[in-house]
Amino acid sequence: MDIFHGRESEIEEFRQLIDLKSSQLVTCQGRRRIGKSTFIGHCGDLVSQAYTISGLPPRADIDRESQLVNFSEALARSFGVPRLTLDSWPKAFHFLSTLLPKSGSTLVLLDEISWMSLGDRDFAGHLKNAWNAYFSKHQGLVLVLVLCGSVSSWIEENILNSTGFVGRVS
What predicted TM-score, i.e. pTM, was given to this entire model? Predict the structure, then answer.
């Protein structure tokens, strides 16, 4: 893996997460166009498999349904499965969990997570429930679920400072 100049310690942190041999929930935030997604993509070289799902950018008519269709299409492309109609985030997260490999190490990047949440004020709660019920429970799989975004305030409010995620974020 090519080393990002000045990011050696972050790459080492990622290696240490994988060495824990258990599922990890990670956040990556910062202003737009600084290389967050690219950096996480390179961290994907350290695991057996890596997948990226990006939220659709905000626009006047974007809603939860649009984000769910986009999520379903990304799953279909990434995992080579038919696109399902997903009518809720709990179903979407459960479907993703069923597609994950049974062993090895896997990175799943949910990129522009705040965009993905548009139109659903309970999005973070659904994600927390999915983490507890599915993503953290895969025996034999080291899953690193990365929540990434340029709207740092959303990540701080809904993930880092949320009582629902206390003790869950690596």
Answer: 0.88
